[in-house]
Amino acid sequence: MITGEARPVAKRKGDTVIGGTVNENGVLHIKATRVGSESSLAQIVRLVESAQMAKAPVQKFADRISKFFVPLVIMLSFFTWLSWFLAGKFHGYPNSWIPKSMDSVQLALQFGISVMVIACPCALGLATPTAVMVGTGVGASQGVLIKGGQALESAHKVDCIVFDKTGTLTIGKPLVVNTQLLKNMVLQEFYELVAAAEVNSVHPLAKAIVEYAKKFREDEENPAGPEAHDFVSITGHGVKAIVRGREIIVGNKSLMVDQNIAVPLDAEDYLAEAEGLAQTGILVAIDGEVAGVLAISDPLKPGAQEVITILKSMSVRSIMVTGDNWGTANSIANEVGIDTVIAEAKPVQKAEKVKELQASGYIVAMVGDGINDSPALVAADVGMAIGAGTDIAIEAADIVLMKSNLEDVITAIDLSTFKENLHPYSFELHLGFGI
């Protein structure tokens, strides 16, 4: 929750654990060293709140015009009244100009009020909310929820976008993408054994394996599969169990070494290939011999590469900041086309990177989905949250991409550009009519 790391982390006696995280195996006795406002989650919430308070609203173009235009209208109205009042007092125009129902003072007052009513900048007050209403309405119909005029006004100025990785550039759900069998056996039988061993684990990768194995039993009358006995979960390594009388061990290379199981060169090559593709390699041993290698990946969202390419054509710089490890981060960045990568970043470091870019002169947008993205979402000039993300991230953002599609980042920028192009015409028409 805090780091954005996809895999659980092993903890030992004396290690520090963060409130809000989940213990997957065993029983722990934990001493609370920080409670309430001092907890890590509370500090993140405080960062979000302080950033929201510190963000000054953009000065509206209408306010800048009204600052000079309103006093000018009042002075013109006064001088109009004064001119007609003096002209009437000293008989500067024929008495026939004065209607029978009023005198010269009332006529002067009528002209003064007329100037004020006609030239009063009512349209200046209507132009901005009307443009915002249209922009937000069109955005909502496209699945882009824009929370206010400031976000709509700022989005077209963005020249640097910071992307989170997991759940933003990637789907955020591990999937089995490749299987290499090293023994002569049927793939369905292989996955029956592996899934039976993994079904009792709460590890995200185990869930991905179990879900993938279901497709091999869809046409069978009994899709439940065999049962596992003597299940043991080795934190940070994998699992072992007895299935149909056979010992099944599923995990990483370290687990195989600990269990005195030799890892063949073919398996080593498959593991290296998976790591080079930003995938997690899982070894499966059956009765003391490595029988297969699984590659599990959190794939890129459809259209991610195209979005980065379009942003480059718009002269918008793309940066990836993630709490995940450097190897996975670099591989994903290379695949999507992002040149600048910052990995193993904590929530505060993400926000600091946004502020660093702002200090360099960039107008920065942040696109994220998790609690750990919230400080950066608020610190950015425009925060965009993935609709499938956490409530805290959605609350912190200025724009919510309800369909969770990266293409909607472009949509938000286009809506802002259209609104800004429409705005000047409203002011010009009003000023021309008033004059």
Automatic annotation (TrEMBL):
Annotated Gene3D superfamilies: Calcium-transporting ATPase, cytoplasmic domain N, Calcium-transporting ATPase, cytoplasmic transduction domain A, HAD superfamily/HAD-like
Main localization, broad class: membrane
Organism: Rosa chinensis (China rose)
Compartments where found: Membrane
Class of the enzyme per the UniProt entry, highest EC level: hydrolase
Sequence ranges assigned to domain P-type ATPase A in this UniProt record: 1-49
Keywords: ATP-binding, Copper, Copper transport, Hydrolase, Ion transport, Membrane, Metal-binding, Nucleotide-binding, Repeat, Translocase, Transmembrane, Transmembrane helix, Transport
EC numbers: 3.6.3.4
SUPFAM superfamilies hit by this protein: Calcium ATPase, transduction domain A, Calcium ATPase, transmembrane domain M, HAD-like
Record InterPro entries: ATPase_P-typ_cyto_dom_N (IPR023299), ATPase_P-typ_P_site (IPR018303), ATPase_P-typ_TM_dom_sf (IPR023298), ATPase_P-typ_transduc_dom_A_sf (IPR008250), ATPase_P-type_domA (IPR059000), HAD-like_sf (IPR036412), HAD_sf (IPR023214), P-typ_ATPase_IB (IPR027256)
Taxonomic superkingdom: Eukaryota
GO MF entry, a single one: ATPase-coupled monoatomic cation transmembrane transporter activity
Biological process according to GO: copper ion transport
Gene Ontology CC terms: membrane
Ranges that cross the membrane: 68-87, 107-127
UniProt-recorded name of the protein: Putative cu(2+)-exporting ATPase
Protein family (similarity comment): Belongs to the cation transport ATPase (P-type) (TC 3.A.3) family. Type IB subfamily.
